[in-house]
Amino acid sequence: MAKKRRPTMKDVAAHAGVSLSTVSYVVNDSGPVASDRRARVLDAIRILNYTPNESARSLKRRSASTIGLIVPDLANQYFALVAEGVERAASERGVLVVLCVPQATGKSDDFYAQLLRSQRLDGVVYLSATGTLPSLILELTRSGAVVLVDEQMPGFELPAVVSDNRRGAREIAQHVIETGHRRIALIGGPRPLWSADQRLAGYREALAAAGQNPDEVPFFGGDYRQRSGYELAAKALEVDPAERPTALICANDLMAFGALEYCRANGLSVPGDLSIVGFDDVPTASLVTPRLTTVRQPAHDLGAAAAGLLFGLIDDEEDATPPMPFPTTLMERESVAPPAPR
Amino acid sequence: MAKKRRPTMKDVAAHAGVSLSTVSYVVNDSGPVASDRRARVLDAIRILNYTPNESARSLKRRSASTIGLIVPDLANQYFALVAEGVERAASERGVLVVLCVPQATGKSDDFYAQLLRSQRLDGVVYLSATGTLPSLILELTRSGAVVLVDEQMPGFELPAVVSDNRRGAREIAQHVIETGHRRIALIGGPRPLWSADQRLAGYREALAAAGQNPDEVPFFGGDYRQRSGYELAAKALEVDPAERPTALICANDLMAFGALEYCRANGLSVPGDLSIVGFDDVPTASLVTPRLTTVRQPAHDLGAAAAGLLFGLIDDEEDATPPMPFPTTLMERESVAPPAPR
DNA sequence: GAGATTTACAGAACCGTTTCGACAAGTCCG
DNA sequence: CGGACTTGTCGAAACGGTTCTGTAAATCTC
User: Quick one: average pLDDT of A140-155?
Assistant: First the structure.
């Protein structure tokens, strides 16, 4: 089977008996063309099954109608959901999104930044897992647009769409305090990460408001992954029983799952012996036993908003300014109960 | 701040005092060039911070070094994992992956096929949720390459990488039978889907081997989503207690989760009152209570293999032939127990 | 109804690469 | 030592579009 060449504009023009520019005008609706000729062109397009060559277009337009999406890993449902949101918003504008998963591939962020740069992408949505901005991403901000999700770079005024991590954290900490807990341990996210920082700040606010000295509550720094939740739970709980916390506040759901695992493995009942809360409200959170009390982030909307903001930036719109932090909502489920009386 | 144009080959050539073609030769290592000149060019590239314009390249080369990935939805961890696998294999070859999530965006598969076609993508990895092949995907097979994951189109000999669904299904059904269950209900996937079909076939084989007439075991067709697991579990269980199944075999984990939810909501103990098994072994499967007995599919590897096969096809390699079905492995956990004595 | 304006179209330049053909200067061999 | 190859280099023609410029015809204006 001869692998037949795709029809080009030239073919269409020939078939319709008009010039190249005319075809271009009808394809892009960018110039005046008489209705009968327009019809002829449209016919030719249909008959030849013509599709414009986007490479040529991007070359000429110096823009690819494509954005990049850098996401640490897809196995984390929170990230997956954000990605879906980005994709949704992009597809509505006929924009393609190219996916980069640095953590899964072992490639550095910079590797991708390089790749993206050469593709002349219009912009990039960047979800970080490390809190450090690769230098090339930074460079991208000069030629293209970059928007961060649930992340902020103090020092660089990068546009970002975030949810109100601090408030969400404060509320859930308040909730566990109000349930009666006094011995609380904190399992935080990777420190340089803005979201981790904000959540910690929120927890501490609530603690302070309840008259506790935040500096005295045990804190363990994790990496937002399940494994570290498990290990840190071990650290937090393997102490003198009199000192043992009655509640564990985890900075995201994955780590809370890890903690849950630990408890299961060690015969601790949740929430009987220990209350546990998370953050994010991934779908799995309402599936585990006990169903996890956590803070819902509107992951989908966050993603869509990020893409929207990015498009605004790309089009140089006046009102392309980062939205207010998205509100979070406390999801009270079953993993919190009053501490057992001593 | 003047938005400065990216340097082009011309700039590099001028800076190095050589011709365009020479620069191209060193960039692609595609022609002879004296070592001193090569060095000069390399220097110029570094100094100017030059990156080739991929749009121009694709235009000239008629290929974009980019593949498409069509995945029904990312919230399903199985799909997310496959996607990661694809991404990993692609990034190793410096190939970009453009992500399409038809279900999340409400766009049809055809919409994306159209988009992909115009981008002159080198190929597409396609995960279906419907079992019907969009006509445009079919058309893509003529100009580019398409490989299916865990899916096969009877009639069209499309290359596919699959795991041994049938055997996996047979084994897990065997397992529940051997545990003592005789009253079993099946919650299947969307019928036209090959994987759903294979799994069903596997279940029936095991049933038949155990002396049961497969046609007499209750079957409920779902859509691989959690909600339908819930609803179908309801249907399967809300029958005369004497008839009520003691085990529920679900064609994927998500539906098993739905069934689990139903049991929880209705005070049924798993596996005390009812055994439940799934398929896929998504990360959440070992997180729910009871931990779900299921069949592991090597999602990551499936994705990577699919991408690998696609590259082989693209490069017209002789040995680019679909791999043997990947073996699955039975993950015995806690959601299966002998049926309660009557 | 002559001149000004608009409308519909064609022609051509250009976007940034790759690559073919031409050509000059070495290198090899009998 | 003269032809047959190599080797290194360059110019120029694509690739498939967009868009500016020019122009002939149609429409408007008074």
Answer: 82
Q: What is the pLDDT of residues A51-81, one digit of tens each?
A: 999 999 999 998 888 999 999 889 899 999 9
Helix (H, G, I), strand (E, B) or coil at A119: coil
* Protein residue nearest nucleotide D19, by CA to C1': A21
For residues B331 and B295, the answer to whether their CB atoms sit within 8 Å is yes
Instruction: Scan for tokens 């341990």, then name that residue.
Output: A185
SS3 of A57, please?
helix
Q: Which amino acid is at B191?
A: R
Q: How many other CB atoms are found less than 10 A from the CB of residue A269?
A: 12
Q: Distance between CA atoms of A331 and A253, rounded to whole angstroms?
A: 12
Query: Cα separation of B125 and B80, whole Å?
Result: 13
CB contact B266 to A (< 8 Å) = no
Please tell me which residue, A334 or B122, carries the higher pLDDT value.
Answer: A334
> What secondary structure letter does DSSP report for B17?
T
Q: What is the pLDDT of residue A342?
A: 61
- Protein-proximal positions, strand D, CB < 7 A: 7-20
Tens of pLDDT along B164-219? Answer: 999 999 999 999 999 999 999 999 999 889 999 999 999 999 999 999 999 999 99
Query: CB-based burial of residue B241 (10 Å sphere; 0-12 exposed, 13-18 middle, 19+ buried)?
Result: exposed
Chain B contacts in chain A segment 224-263 (CB below 8 A)? 226, 257, 260-261
Whether the pLDDT of residue B109 is over 80: the answer is no
pLDDT above 80 (res A107): no
Please tell me which residue, A132 or A253, carries the higher pLDDT value. A253
Per-residue model confidence (pLDDT) at position B178: 95
Beta-ladder partners of A136: none
Torsion sign (Cα): A310, A312, A316, A322: negative
Residue B59, CB, strand D, below 7 Å = yes
Look at residues B107, B199, B105, B186 and name the one whose alpha carbon lies nearest to residue B150. B199
- Average pLDDT of chain A is 90
Amino acid letter, residue A77 = Q
pLDDT band at A254 (very low <50, low <70, confident <90, very high): very high
CA distance B28 to chain A (A): 14
* CB crowding B64-75: b at 16 or more within 10 Å, else e: bbbbbbbbbbbb
**Nearest C-alpha neighbor of B53 from the set A144, A62, A69:** A62
Burial class (CB in 10 A: 0-12, 13-18, 19+), B4: exposed
In angstroms, how far is CA A126 from the centroid of its own chain? 8
Helix, strand, coil percent values for chain B (each to nearest 5) = 45, 15, 40
Cβ atoms of residues A294 and A329 within 8 Å = no
- Predicted confidence at residue B1, as pLDDT, reads 45
- Flag if B74 and A80 touch (Cβ within 8 Å): yes
pLDDT at A2: 47
| Bond preceding residue B290 cis, omega within 30 of 0 | yes
Closest chain A residue by Cα to residue B81: A75
Q: How far apart are the first and last CA of chain B?
A: 81
Interface test with A, best of B5, B45, B54 (most A CBs within 10 A): B54
Q: Residue A50 is encoded by which pair of tokens?
A: 């013509």
Does at least one atom of strand D sit less than 7 Å from the CB of A53? yes
Average pLDDT over residues B297-312: 95
Asked if B111 has any chain A CB less than 8 Å from its own CB, the reply is: yes
